[in-house]
# Entry
Amino acid sequence: MEIEQQLAAGVIAAVKSLYDVEISEEMVQVSPTRKEFEGHLTVMVFPFMKQTGKRNPVELGTEIGDWLVANLPLVGKFNVVKGFLNISINASSWLDKLQAIYSNNSYGLQPVTESSPLVMIEYSSPNTNKPLHLGHLRNILLGWSLSQIMEACGNRVVKTNIVNDRGIHICKSMLAWQKWFDGATPESAGKKGDHLIGDCYVAFDKHFKAEVKEILENDPEIQAIVNDDPEKQAEARKAAAEAKSPLMQEARAMLRKWEAADPDVRALWAKMNEWVYAGFDETYKQMGVGFDKIYYESNTYLEGKDLVLEGLEQGKFFRKDDGSVWADFTNEGLDQKLLLRKDGTSVYMTQDIGTAKLRYQDFPIDKMIYVVGNEQNYHFQVLSLLLDRLGFKWGKDLVHFSYGMVELPNGRMKSREGTVVDADDLMASMINDAREVSGDRLADMSDEEKERVFSIIGLGALKYFLLKVNPVNNMVFNPAESIDFNGNTGPFIQYTHARICSILRKAGIDASSTLTIDNSVEISEKEQTLIQKLVDFEGVVLRAGKEYSPAQIANYAYDLAKEYNQFYHDTSILKEEDEQKRNLRLMLSACVARVIKTAMRLLGIDVPERM
RNA sequence: GUCUGGGUAGUUCAAUGGAUAGAACGGAGGUUUCCUAAACCUUUGAUCUGGGUUCGAUUCCCAGCCUGGAUACCA
# Structure
């Protein structure tokens, strides 16, 4: 049992024994003691004042403290300040804890068995008409990290991805490729497939814009659209002009051909999508992430349509006069939601229903987590109700892991304004920065080894930067300033780990060595603080899993690394002559290194042994 | 309009209802006879406004201001 829990149980017993009053677990708040005060853990006694009838919190705290010292072996001494009961834990209890952590190779991780709950996590979910950008990076890293954390919390995890491979957007790229790209392939163009297709999309948009402008200025039909409100008039004219654009009409015609399974269109579609997948795979590989099962919208949207029609027959949905199919959620406080257009084609929501069906066929899912931006909060609120109505047992409890946008200093990224930060470019530039910062520290390594380390460090900085922020908040990325390698950063934590590895190397300790310490060894305040933080790790992981928050792991890892750096700076380890003290510090270092490594793995960040 | 997030040092981020609101970057200054100076130390500086609940509010409730997002046939 954890020290905090033992203490909390002790306090409950103390109150029961002293005042014959039952208090609940929630009333006992235990937290680390602030640095200014003596003690390790602090219990708030204010909450017990009513039940115990005590008027004076100091008196109450003192009585509980006396009882704890007399009855709880792990409590050494205590002091009371106002209503804060500061408890000092016995040194031997800390040492026991440290030894337990040292000898447990999977410390902090819950076991996963055949009968563990099955959690499916969807993330990335790209469109296939353009390369991945910074926003996708946040999504993918959160999804990957979350799946690691859920596994660490004792769940079986299936990582999944839904690829939005059909629709008007890919038709635009296909059309542009036919018209202006002269049969270019990724090989002939010398660029990744996703980037080539992205270029096509941009080309389409450029020509399309020009067309619309031309029509707006010269077309008499458009000029005839008049509205008293100038804003509304402009909107209406623009919509009419866009619909009238020959390019757009061609794209729509292509989409219809695609839906009719026209062989030529399908062949082109398949070829171009393959290029994109190859490009994405390269990006995923570079990031160090992957999936267990990938779904494609082109395979799932028809399934969704079937389910909707089935639901319609069972009276779960209704049809409007124009033939469109809707779900009514006015009883649940929401609106009506379109499920099938009047022409019978499916919408975004329909596709998600079909995907859910296939997933449930493939896996006995207990919990489904969708990692999708907060712009889709409403969509997932509706999807949850919809799946529940269709009888998916996890529908009601599906988790929309909603995260904020990555913004630039002037606002959000806009592809139209060319302010999108490309994922591949950003990663390459981070790795390059790492190379420059490193100097000649790794001069004795082979070029291959060096590149591996630079890649770990550069990506570590990027990943940590994106993961340390609370997911619900929007975050700001300034492309003009490179991501830091100093301070509260991934490399700082990696550096601490590398440094510990160096110490252990010099002490002649490797994975097979076993350190031992005597329980009577003296333990300093800094050492005790470090052990306390190590003990916290298990709880931090569980909490991060419960609250779906990789940021808590990130902040914990930084805190631990910072604490160790201070310890390192004013404590000698290798030069320590007292063998017991030396072994204690080495054992502590080994534990810190392992916990850092585990925590960083939960974030999807590697830690090199040298840097 | 309606619904829904967010508002904390100059900047980027923290803070299960608890003690003097923490870090980092930036600014100013300092530390290498010892294990990696990507480090360490000192200093500078903030809770949008007004009410309420509470022994105690950045945190919970109400109102207002600022700001992001959604709002039904795009995904």
Observations:
- Chain A has three domains: 3-89, 90-122+424-611, 123-412.
- The first helix of chain A runs from residue 3 to 19.
- The domain at 3-89 of chain A is CATH 3.30.1360.70 (Gyrase A; domain 2).
- Chain A has a mean pLDDT of 92.
